[in-house]
Amino acid sequence: MAKKKKKNSWIGWLIAIIAGIVSLITGKSWTEWDITQEVIQESNKQADTERMEIPLMKQKQGQIIQRTGYTLSYDAKNKTPQWVAWELTKEETRGNEERSTEFFPDPDVIGTKVVTYDYSHSGYDRGHMAPAGDMKWNKKAMEESFYMTNICPQDHNLNTEDWNDLEMKSREWARRYGKVYIVCGPIYTGKRNEYIGEHRVKVPDAFFKVILINDSRKQCAIGFYFENEAGERPLKEYIVSVDKIEKMTGMDFFSALPDDLENQLEKEILENLP
After folding, report:
1. Which positions ≥6 away from 243 have C-beta within 8 Å?
2. Angle at CA 249, nearest 5°, toward 245 and 251?
3. How buried is residue 28: exposed, middle or buried, by Cβ count under 10 Å (0-12/13-18/19+)?
4. How far apart are CA 129 and CA 171, in angstroms?
């Protein structure tokens, strides 16, 4: 099975070294300098951002990091991803790689790196955005799904119940229709101002997930909106239009579709799951 494109890790290391030198010379964190966005933009030029699952940003883009099984945009301010995107194929749902048991700081992050202990005794789960269950097809993909850049503080009940239900449903759709395109991430509405850990990871108010099925038998784009709290509700109660998620996040999803088709699919609110 062909591996998906990866970001050259040496770029991240080089940028981290430059950032460290700036910090030593000036006594200030690299995030305080205008050069930061320039460095991130230069790094982002190495990323493959034209795939169907990669959203366009209407606001400031974070650091794009490409992994074996997913791509993400990292929000250095909130210490969580802005978005995580991946294509899940029928073949990839059949893997048998064992789930990892350890979380790791992301070696390619520019600046401060979140560690697993930032979540200890916080009352929140280390909630995967791209789930480990979607990465069983490749050992490295599985390991990278446990990088802290793919993790958000998530209500335990949400993580183990409704969010998990949607992950399993997505794999079912990939098996049925051959592949699905998925984008998810945190939403910050301003309702709460809560941080956890030494590195001050911001707790999301909610989460989104958008899924595209683009098969000859079925074409639909489904949006889901979850408050970061216990739910235990049927998945169809979380359905919203993709247009609504775009307005909430400032992202443009599935822009590689023909405009007419994209507009048609994204305004629909499905009454029932496929």
Report:
1. 223, 266, 267
2. 90
3. exposed
4. 14
For residues 122 and 159, what is the distance between their CA atoms, to the nearest angstrom? 15
| Dist CA 240 CA 233 (whole Å) | 15
Q: 209 by DSSP, 3-state: which?
A: strand
Backbone angles phi, psi at 210, to 5 degrees: -120, 140
- Reply yes or no on whether 128 is catalytic: yes
Length of the chain: 274
Contacts of residue 118, defined as CB under 8 A and 6 or more positions apart, other chains included, come to 79, 148, 196, 197, 198, 199, 201
CA distance 32 to 18: 14
Q: Which domains does the chain have, with CATH numbers?
A: 9-267 (3.40.570.10)
Distance CA 155, CA 123 (A): 8
* Measured distance CA(163)–CA(160) in Å, rounded: 7
As a whole number of angstroms, the distance between CA 175 and CA 9 comes to 32
Q: What is the mean pLDDT of the chain?
A: 88
Q: Integer distance in angstroms from the first to the last C-alpha of the chain? A: 28
51 pLDDT tier (thresholds 50, 70, 90): confident
Q: Which residue has the tokens 């970061």?
A: 228
pTM of the model: 0.84
Q: Which two tokens stand for residue 101?
A: 């048991």
127-184: pLDDT as tens digits: 999 999 999 999 999 999 999 999 999 999 999 999 999 999 999 999 999 999 999 9
In 3D space, the residue among 227, 221, 243 whose CA is nearest the CA of residue 53 turns out to be 221
Tell the residue number behind the tokens 């390619």, with chain if given: 108
Element (H, E) at 249: helix 242-249
